[in-house]
Each structure stands twice: as C-alpha cells, then as structure tokens.
C-alpha cells in the first residue's frame, strides 16, 4: 500500500508551489523509504520551479534533508530501519567509467529510486535531484541514505545534503584550497558561505566575501571571511586585487552562476589561479571572453557539482567536525518553517533575508 503524505509540488513554470497529497510506494529492491525530519530550501528548488533545470513538471521539491529510514527493500544491507541519515544526490554506481577509475565523486550513473512517487490521481512526480524531501516521507535509492551521528540535529545535518556541502566542497575538493591560500567567494548565500567556512577550516589566509547585499556580508564574516566587498558599489575585481597585493586570489569561487559573476571571478584570480563555478547558470546564458586571456592567464577553470563530494566519506566527517565545534552548521539555519511555508521561503530567499529556511516535518 502506498503511503499518503503531504508534499510540496511545483505544477508549472513560475506557478506558486503548493502542498499536495503525494503517494509514496513501499520500497522495492535497492530502495529505502525515509521519514523526513527536516529539509532546507535551496536556490536550486527555486530554479526547478522557474523551469530553469528542465521541463519535467510536476516536481516534488526539496533535496537537503535528514531523516530516519522507515523501511528498506530487498537486497538493502547498508542501511536499516531506524538509521539516522542525510539524503544525498550522489549514490555512486561503482561501475561507470568514473567509478572504475577511482573517481566516484564524478560518478556518471548515480542511483535514484526506480519506482515513482505520484499525485493522488496517479500523475508521476519528478523528485528534485532524485530526492523530493519537502514531504513527510520520500522514496530514494538506498545508496542515497548516508548514516551520520544522530546527535546532530536534523535541521543542520540535512544542509550537508546539498548547498552547504556544495560550497564546502567547491573550496576544499574542487578548488583544493589549502593553508595560506587567498580565496574570494562571489555570492554569499548558503552555498557561498559554505565555501567561506571551508576555506576558513583549512587555514586560508585571506578570504574575501563578495555580495550585493550587506546582510550577507555580515554573515560571511561570522563564517570566517577576512574581508568583504559589496559589488553593488565597488568593482569586485579591483577590490580583490587590492586585497591580495595587486595580484588576485589563488582561488575564486562563483556561487552565483551568471556570466557577469563568472567574468568577475575569471579576472579576480591570480595568474595560474583557479576559478570554481558552483552557482548554476540557466540554459540561455552565454559567456564571451577573449580566448587569449584564457590562455595567457593560465590556471584552471573548473565547475563543481555538489562540491565534488563523496557523501559516504564527507557527510559523517563533516558532522563530526560540527559536533566537535569546529564547523558551525547552526549558523546556516536562519529560520525553521512548516511545510506550507516553502513558497514564502522562496520570496524570503529572493529578498536576501535568509541563508537557509528549513522545513521541519
Ligand atoms: N553546483 C552545485 O552542486 C550546487 C548545489 C546547490 C546550489 N547550487 C547553486 O548555487 C547558487 C547559490 O545557491 P544558494 O542556495 O546559496 O542561493 P542564495 O540565493 O541563498 O544565495 C545567492 C547569493 O548571491 C548573491 N548575489 C546575487 N547576485 C549577485 C551578484 N551579481 N554579485 C554578487 N552576489 C550576488 C545574493 O545576494 C545571495 O547572497 C544557485 O545558483 C544554486 O542553484 C549549486
Ligand atoms: Zn559510477
Ligand atoms: Zn540544492
């Protein structure tokens, strides 16, 4: 018998999201049914609602979640009912060419649940990032459940499931930020501040936060930014160069994902430096840069999907650092809301009032 639960559904491009009845099947082979306890509102959920990811409406939104496994299907051995887990959108296959080369964080064939969750009338839902966790229960592939220390509150643990992990990993994994480096982060929302926290964690020497909103810059300082630049009234490229002895930063992270911010990142970086694109552009965006500058400035332009994280390796480790007081995840949670508050939370996010609104179920 399918489970009848509440879920936040985006029916059509730009239309306000609504809480609807969702039918969640019992787990089949390789699947897990998870009782969701908390799920953060990520900008990517809004991208889905805006039709910026794809057109597979209706979407069941929500993908930054923690909860408890309620049931597992045949053949599932890594997780069991009662396990406290963070959901991930990188359940690696172990068999694709990336996995076989020993680079599972690039896995090209990640697992999701095989069975579909539906609306009451049988309409098949597309779960955001294969998760769909603005819902009392969700169905995922068992590999999407990563066990972590249950002493971490679900409101903070869930954030590792997407944005905060993407930011931390953009700095630590993709950007390879290390002790003594200079780093600039453009866009200091949940993702950008994750990158700042990551850079601080590994001992970057100069951490420059760039945003168009002073409130975000104040928060960025609390995560470890050594300098802030409001790019609404200051040229961020000039400012970053000035703060780095005239050269530019070793690593610049674009956590906005627009041609304009990418160009700023490109020129705010030192020769042979690295640009990391972690913000998600929309399909219509184009980039126009002199090819000679690409060549002449050297270094690396990288994109970062999910912070190149390996959930089984990174989630439990980051939760332990959090519990030891070395990684402040609580600070990302600006407010907790009810399941009916997601549409309002999008507006709050767009007004720049929060780092993360977290739905508590
Ligand atoms: N690559 C990944 O795996 C991954 C994962 C999660 C989110 N994302 C993407 O990362 C981006 C950020 O997500 P978020 O949840 O932190 O969003 P957010 O809305 O919380 O934060 C965006 C921040 O960028 C700032 N900003 C907007 N325009 C700017 C500009 N021109 N210059 C400087 N700052 C500007 C805003 O003031 C805000 O502080 C989104 O595009 C999201 O889809 C990517
Ligand atoms: Zn793989
Ligand atoms: Zn996300």
Task: Give a quick set of tags describing it.
single chain, 361 residues, alpha/beta, 7-stranded mixed beta sheet, 6-stranded parallel beta sheet, 11 helices, 26% helix, binds nicotinamide-adenine-dinucleotide, binds zinc ion
Stretches where pLDDT is under 50 for at least 5 consecutive residues are none
Based on DSSP secondary structure assignment, what is the total number of beta strands?
18
Q: Which bin fits the share of residues in helices?
A: 25-40%
Mean pLDDT: 97
Radius of gyration: 20 Å
The end-to-end distance, rounded to whole angstroms, is 22 Å
Could you state the oligomeric state of the chains shown? single chain
Structural class by SSE content = alpha/beta
Small molecules bound: nicotinamide-adenine-dinucleotide, zinc ion
Task: Give the helix tally.
Answer: 11
State the order of secondary-structure elements, H for helix, E for strand.
EEEHEEEHEEEEHHEHEHEHEHEHEHEHE
Write the layout of secondary structure elements.
Elements: E1 3-10, E2 18-24, E3 31-40, H1 43-49, E4 59-60, E5 64-72, E6 84-87, H2 97-100, E7 118-119, E8 126-127, E9 137-141, E10 145-147, H3 154-157, H4 163-174, E11 182-186, H5 190-201, E12 206-211, H6 214-223, E13 227-230, H7 236-243, E14 249-254, H8 259-267, E15 269-277, H9 291-297, E16 300-303, H10 311-323, E17 333-337, H11 342-350, E18 356-360
Parallel strand pairs: 4-8, 11-12, 11-14, 12-13, 14-15, 15-16, 17-18
Antiparallel strand pairs: 1-2, 1-4, 2-7, 3-5, 3-9, 3-18, 5-6, 6-10
Helix pairs in contact: 4-5
Bound molecules: nicotinamide-adenine-dinucleotide (NAD) and zinc ion (2 copies).
One zinc ion binds at residues 42, 44, 63-64, 162-163.
């Amino acid at each position: 018998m399918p489970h009848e639960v509440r879920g936040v559904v985006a029916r059509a491009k730009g239309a306000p999201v609504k809480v609807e009845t969702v039918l969640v099947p019992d787990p089949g082979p390789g699947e897990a049914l998870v009782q969701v306890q908390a799920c953060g509102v990520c900008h990517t959920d809004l991208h889905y609602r805006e039709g910026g990811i794809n057109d597979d409406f209706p979407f069941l939104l929500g993908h930054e979640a923690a909860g408890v496994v309620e049931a597992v299907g045949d053949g599932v051995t890594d997780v069991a009912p009662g396990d406290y887990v963070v959901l991930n959108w990188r359940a690696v296959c172990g068999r694709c060419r990336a996995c076989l080369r020993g680079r599972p964080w690039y896995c090209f064939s990640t697992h999701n649940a095989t069975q579909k969750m539906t609306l009451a009338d049988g309409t098949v839902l597309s779960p955001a990032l294969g998760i769909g966790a603005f819902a009392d229960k969700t169905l995922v592939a068992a590999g999407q459940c990563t066990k972590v220390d249950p002493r971490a509150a679900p409101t903070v643990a869930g954030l590792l499931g997407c944005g905060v992990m993407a930011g931390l990993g953009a700095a630590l994994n993709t950007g390879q930020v290390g002790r003594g480096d200079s780093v600039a982060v453009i866009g200091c929302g949940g993702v950008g501040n994750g990158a700042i926290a990551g850079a601080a964690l590994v001992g970057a020497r100069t951490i420059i936060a760039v945003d168009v909103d002073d409130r975000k810059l104040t928060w960025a300082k609390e995560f470890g930014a050594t300098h802030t630049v409001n790019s609404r009234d200051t040229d961020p490229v000039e400012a970053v160069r000035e703060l780095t002895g005239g050269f530019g930063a070793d690593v610049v992270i674009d956590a906005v994902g627009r041609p304009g911010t990418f160009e700023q990142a490109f020129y705010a970086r030192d020769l042979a430096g690295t640009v990391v694109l972690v913000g998600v552009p929309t399909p219509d965006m184009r980039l126009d840069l002199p090819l000679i500058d690409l060549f002449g400035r050297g270094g690396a332009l990288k994109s970062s999907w999910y912070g190149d994280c390996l959930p089984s390796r990174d989630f439990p480790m980051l939760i332990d650092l959090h519990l030891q007081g070395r990684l402040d995840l609580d600070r990302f949670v600006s407010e907790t809301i009810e399941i009916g508050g997601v549409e309002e939370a999008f507006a709050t996010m767009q007004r720049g009032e929060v780092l993360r609104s977290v739905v508590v179920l």
